[in-house]
Each structure stands twice: as C-alpha cells, then as structure tokens.
Amino acid sequence: MGEQIFALDIGTRSVIGILLHQTDTDYTITDYVVREHKERSMLDGQIHDVVSVATVIQEVKEYLEQKHQITLSKVCVAAAGRALKTKRTTITKDISLQPLISKDDIVMMELSAVQQAQFELSLEERERSLTHYYCVGYSILQYKLDQDIIGSLIDQRGEEAEVEIIATFLPKVVVESLIAALQRADLEMEALTLEPIAAINVLIPTSMRRLNVALIDIGAGTSDIAITDTGTITAYGMVPKAGDEITEAISDQYLLDFNEAERFKKDITANNEAVLTDILGFEQTISIDELSLAIQPAIDRLASAIAEEVIALNAKAPKAVMLVGGGSLTPKLTTHIANKLQLPDNRVAIRGTDAIPSLQFDIEMPEGPTFITPIGIAIAAKQNPIHYISVTVNDRDVRLFDVKQLTIGDCLLAAGIHVDKLYGLPGMAYMIRFNNQSITLPGSYGKPPKIVLNGDIVSADEPIQHGDILHVEKGKDGEEPAITIGELVGELDKFNIHYNHQPYFIQADLIVNNNKVSLDYKICDNDQIQLKKIKTVEDFFLSINQTENIVNDHSFILGINGKTKNILTFTQQLFVNNKLATFTTPLKSGDQLELTESKEPTVHHLLKEIGETIYQTLPITFNGEKVIIRKKMKHVLRNGKEVDLNTELKQNDNIELKPIDNQHFIFQDIFNFVSIDLAEIKPGVEIKRNGHPATFLDPIEANDEITIQ
To answer: Among candidates 620, 139, 608, 617, which has minimal Cα distance to 399?
Structure first.
C-alpha cells in the first residue's frame, strides 16, 4: 500500500472525512465518513463557531481511527479561495561573523521575510480596513550574497545575505479558524489547497483544459465556480447561494422545520418520492416532479445566480458545465442552468466519483457528486498545494500566486514596481476653496507608461502566462489644470421636489470671489467658490424654512420581555419615493418626499408589529358543523399591570407577554363558542369525542369530532 492521505471537506452542512492511499499510478479510497453539523456553525463556507466545527471534525477523526486502528495526526484541507493578497519583500542579514550558512539559517530568513511581508501588508490595509491576512504560501525570487545574485546560500561566506520572496495571503480569519478547528481536534494541517481548485483538478485534467468548461461545486452555503479555457484554469468565483436555499424553499412550501426539510430533500433525491409530516401534523407523499414544480422559483433563483457569475467570469456561456457537490442534486437544476446559459440540456451534467480517472475503492461508496470535492481536496492538496507562475518583468523574474486569470497589473505589483511612479508627473495643481473647503485641482495626468509584452504594446489589464517577458517605461509629465466651473460642479438643473404632494422648484446659486458667475467661468488658482445646492432632505427643509421638521431622534423605545426594542413605525417617518429615508438621504430632481405624523400605538398595534398573538385557535367539528374555538394563552402586562388590546402605549413602557398556565384546550372550552343550554345536559345524554365517550375535562385537539346527543 502506498502513502496514506487523510483529507477533510469542511462544508456548511457537514464534514466529510476521506482516507485514501496513493500508489504510482492511482489513488484508492480506503474509507469515508460523513458527520453533519449539530448547529449552523458554518455560514457560506466560512467557520463561524470553531468549537462546534472542531467537535464534528473530532468525531470524524475518532471514527476512522477506531475503525482502522490507526492514529491520524495530519490532514489535507481546503480554504476558501477569496480575497487573496500577494506581497513581495526582501530581508537582509549580517553574516560577517557567521562562518557558514546552513539550510536552517536560510529557512529562518525566508520565514522572517514572510513575517515582514505580512507586516507591510497590514500597514497598507489599515487605512481601508482592519482585515488581517495570513500567508498560505511563498516562493523565493532570488538569493543575494554581498549584492550579487547567487543560486544557493548554503555553506557560503560573505558580509551580507539577502533573500527576496513573494508571499500569498488569505484573510486571517479564514485560515486561522480552519487551523483552530483542526488543532482542537488534535490535527496538523499537512497540505492546503483552495476549494475552487479541488474538484477541477480531479475532473478536468490538463489535457482537457483547452476546452471552455465551467465546473460548479454546489455545497450547502456556497457554489464555487472554476472555469477552464485555452489549456489552463482561467477564472475562479463564488456565489453565496447553494443547497440551503433549496432546503429553505422546501421548508416554506411544506411547513417543515429546516432539519426535517433537509431530511426530506435527501430522501426524495434518493428515491424520487418521499413522505413528509408538516408542523400541523398532516402527512403527505410527494414525488420529485411535484417538488420541482412547487419550489421552481427557488431553483430558478439558484440557477440564475450561478449562470450570471459564470458569464461574468467567462464573458460568455461556456461550452459545457459540470456540477458536483450535494447541492447539484437539486431536481431540474441542470435544466434550469442550461436554459439560463442557453446551452443544450446535454451540455450541463452532474459528475460523480465514477468520473475520476485512476480511482479505486476498497469500500462501497456513493457514485454521486457529493464526494468529488473531498476526494479532490486530498488529491489536489498533495499534487498542487500552491501554484505559482513565473514572468520576467523588466529583466527580473517574478512569481505569482496562480489563483485567477493574472494580468500585467498583477505582475507590476508582484515585481515591487510602484504603478503610480510609472505614470508621468501631473501638472502643477491649483488650490481653491469650494464651499469653505480646501480643494486641490490637479493638473492634467501624466501619460501612461509604455507596456511591452513579448514585443507587443499592451494595456495593464492584459492577461499574462507563464514565461511571458514584460518591459515597462515611465510616461511623460502632464500640464496645469484647465477647467471651467461647469466641469467642476456639473450642470445646474432646477430641483423639482414634491413634498407631501405639493411641488417645490429650487435652483442653486453659483458665486466665485463674491461675484455670481456662469458655468463657463474658467477656474483660477486660489478662487473662492460657493455653491448652495440641495443635496439631502435636510438641505431641502432648510431651503423652505421648515427647520421644525428636522427631528433627529426617531425612536419609540419599549421594553418587550426584558429586551429593549425601537419600533420605528410608531414614530414620525420620512419617505423618499415611497422608501423609508432619513434627513441625510440624498435628493434629486423629481423625487417625491413625504413626512408622516407619529402614531399613538396600542397593544394591538404592538402585537401586530412584532408578529405575536395572545390567542390560540383550534378547529373542531361540533355536532357535524365546523367550529373555530379560541383561548387566551398570554397575559399582556404594561409596567406590571394587565392591560387589554386597546390600551395605548407610551415611550419607555415595559411590556411583558406572560404565558397562561394550562393552555391546553379541554372539552368544556367548547361551550364558550356554541349555543347549548348546559342545564339540558342530564343523565342519559351522550357526550363523545371522535366517537368515544368523553367528559367535560377531557383534552381536545385540532379536527376532533365532538357530539352531544
């Protein structure tokens, strides 16, 4: 038996563990296990509850260890291939007092360079966001000894050693949550791949990648997309819609909770027919054709989202589409995707494990699409853990993380070339004051750089391939600004606003250095410009001298069962074009503005707002006639005192919905809703429930048949 590989596919709904071993010619599946998450601890493929996910991973690991009497300490996994960042950096080390450089010394220098790249990346990102990135791989660009390029530093002597790397980063939370979950399960990450790469590497070998094919891995939370063309993987993408949307549609359609809907979905997929029991207790047998018709809108939405992303990534419909993952078994999904992409039905197909070449099985395993990704993770993480391509940029070799269709712009960043310095310098700027704010009007832009790829002049978004040769030359400088005030502020149209169904016409004033000017005035250095323009709802009220309408505190605070809630619908509300707005909402000509008065809410309004009811209803049959009986199940307390539905509420009231004990319906509750003289009920009168004798204190349930004879 060859090398044993343990791989995990940590998905939104479940964790799949795979044991396989590798020989010279093929892979053999030894065993597998599937464990579903007990809670919704994954969202759109991202770990949200490390402890819960780790618990499931531990179950998978222990099951395989106990069954095969082995110890599993390392595992292959996949990370979400989103938001990758690359950073190139160089680090130097004084080696004048070090006689010889060992391999360990070089590894430490490389790791120090990765840390420096991570620090530099965090500094660059801090102004935009607080997102931190984690290195998932790096490549050595070159070594130097005393400023001269050298092939290896091992056993070298000199004054200064230098290593230059390019590092690749994922959002820290993606990798660290993955590592944390593995560590809690006593596992070490042996190899890492990216989710979009996993399935495509086992289903579409390199020889087939000249074809324009889209492979879509539809899980529970996300649908990962990878596209091949012209011999390579050209694009990756992700849609945050997948099998859970179908489960939720089934839940809504048939009144099932989520877990029951998921069970029903699996049963009907496997058997083309399944039995369900809804929350009202009704049992139905549904065929797969009936299901696909009932949830057709949800299937159509999923197919539309996938098709739109495929076309966005590929700029057209591909020649064929392969579907994998449990979500691909959604009924009629292949037909819907084919229609959206305008492809024949036979060009969209679900692929199972039988489509993986050179794959053997020691156990019986489902042939469907569910296990493509975990098998792909195991194989891809070993064969292609992290990919780079090499490009020559201005006579220097650069390596890039090949996770998408790379462009010349990616090369310039990876080569450490500052793109802004490639452009010619802008002309001298003008400093002006616009509405009491300092504004810099730059001169004309410098000319763009001259970019030559393999001898041809191209643009910065031109795609590149391994082995390309790129040369970049700086562009010419620009000139001083030549701009009119009309170009600065745009055309001044009259504002036509309808406020509470009354028209208002307003126009901005344009003043330069205390003089009114026209739009063709040519701006000069140090000009003082004033433009009184209506931009927001607040500006509008100020312009019509209705400042009393500008109320910033829109709140109606209530305490509901110990929780504070602000019910905006009880307050004064502002609408722009029938959409809820604030006083900072922008306005444009033709907008419809409406300001409503605040309400005087009652308990009835509150219950309707929060979707609560204090009554429970029960349908029965009484002496052959349908009757709906009702019973109060909750008391409504305002500030500790019971109130009725018509009681008005005040700001900061504390409302408590207190359940009433013994909410079950009993036989005597019927007499509040039917006309019968209890005095006539004497010995000899038959009182029956569903044909059986009953007493006044017997419980009754929905659809019971009650008779009194």
So the answer is: 139
